[in-house]
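Input sequence (214 aa), recorded before submission:
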Amino acid sequence: MTWNDDEFDGLTDDEVTWKLMGPFHGGVPGLVRRVRRILDVSQRGLAALLGTSQSRVARWETGRTSPTMAVVEDLLARAGIALQFHDGDGEVVEPMRDDGSRDRGNRRFPAHVDLSAYEWWTPRGSSSMAWHPLAVRRARQRQDPRITFRLSPWRKAAERLMWGTPVDHPARHQLVAEVRWIDEQREDRDRPRRERLERLRQRWREQLDADHSA
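Predicted structure, token format:
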């Protein structure tokens, strides 16, 4: 290994010694060795714990190959080490939730989209059909929201600028609660109109009864 003399300009003798001695970040090979040290096992012993070969462990430790993420999680769990990821500000970054909402084919939505639900699911184009209210009632009973996301990157960017970027995909029950809340707001908004119509109907019936009595 060669060193650039400019790297040592302005350093004390102790700082130069430390820079030459390390410690240096070991990466994945160093992590595997750390786990072996915590467990106090040889390469062969770790291979036996993982159900793999000693040569594969050796390749991990020399950096020729790397263990899969599942193997890394297994290694850390055996060593009693918690796996966490952090962003540039030091905040913990969690994996996306496993119970995030799925489409009607039980497939995950694309990870980069922002999910929302404003109404109950009904077949597309059915809003003008006479049976549409019945389809809405059935979807409400099944707690089946229409889950959507923006296809336009500009619309998505505008919504994120206005409301912030969602951390994760909401779970299905969260979207159900959102649609229920929208239903309640709609009913509160429409209640005066329905009451006014009901009063008009009542007056019309009373007028009809009066006309028949006459």
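Checked by second reader. The CA atoms of residues 99 and 174 lie 11 Å apart.
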